[in-house]
Design brief:
Elements (H helix, E strand, L loop, with lengths): L26 H23 L40 H7 L3 E7 L3 E8 L6 E8 L8 H16 L5 E8 L6 E9 L4 E10 L2 E10 L6 H24 L2
């Protein structure tokens, strides 16, 4: 038997690691990249749409300035009463009560002025104004509403008065009513208009001698028209204060 040849070590040449094939790249990484791209695209779309208009052309509230809220009645209240005999014009007084003598009284919340005829004790024009001032109450308009409501209720059950007509009056202040009445036991009739403008309530009363029955309808219209004309002048004066 001959001698065996010694085994020589095998030296393999060095080669670097092979890169993975595209088909073997991790799927999780691919999914994350796609999601990130979609999120970025959505963010850009929101940024571009927000400053403009929504679909359909409607302006968005974020870029359209809001109109200021309208003032409330409480913010537009009457701050002071005009002079007691300074609300009805001289022409209106002269037509209603020729050659009138006047008496008046006034404080910060209540004024009265009475024009009396020097030739007849039955003919007179009286203006009363009452103010619910901001410094005296936290709810000036609501207080004026309550007082007006009380006057309206009292007119339905007034003692010593015969009511001929009592109805709401439109176009004078925030709310108003007119009242045509006869004084029991006196030969007089009175046309009266009571109105509220925000936190002020005023009453205009005009009196004449009671007419004959045949003339009552005509005189009722004329007397109420005189009281209403004077009330509109009072309203205009209060709107200036």
């Amino acid at each position: 038997m001959g001698l065996q040849r010694p085994v020589e070590p095998f030296h393999r040449p060095y080669a670097g690691p092979e890169p993975p094939s595209p088909a073997r790249r991790p799927r999780r990484l691919l999914v994350l990249l796609v999601a990130a791209a979609a999120f970025a695209a959505a963010a850009v779309a929101v940024f571009l749409v927000a400053p403009g208009k929504e679909r359909g052309g409607t302006d968005r509230a974020a870029v359209t300035p809001r109109r200021p809220a309208p003032q409330t009645s409480a913010e537009r209240i009457v701050e002071a009463l005009p002079p007691p005999c300074g609300t009805v014009s001289a022409g209106t007084v002269a037509k209603a009560v020729p050659e009138a003598a006047k008496r008046h009284s006034a404080n910060s919340t209540l004024t009265t002025c009475t024009y009396s005829s020097t030739g007849s004790s039955f003919r007179w024009l009286r203006v009363e104004a009452r103010l619910y001032a901001r410094e005296n109450t936290a709810t000036p308009v609501r207080d004026a509403e309550r007082y007006y409501d009380a006057r309206w209720a009292q007119a339905h059950d007034a003692p010593l008065v015969r009511t001929i007509a009592l109805e709401r009056q439109s176009g004078v202040g925030d709310e108003a009513y007119r009242w045509f009445k006869a004084d029991e036991g006196q030969p007089t009739v009175v046309g009266e208009v009571t109105a509220r403008i925000r936190n002020a309530v005023f009453t205009v009363s005009y009196s004449e001698r009671a007419p004959d029955a045949a003339e009552q309808d005509e005189r009722e219209r004329e007397i109420l028209a005189t009281a209403t004309a004077a009330a509109r002048e009072v309203l205009a004066a209060l709107n200036d204060f």
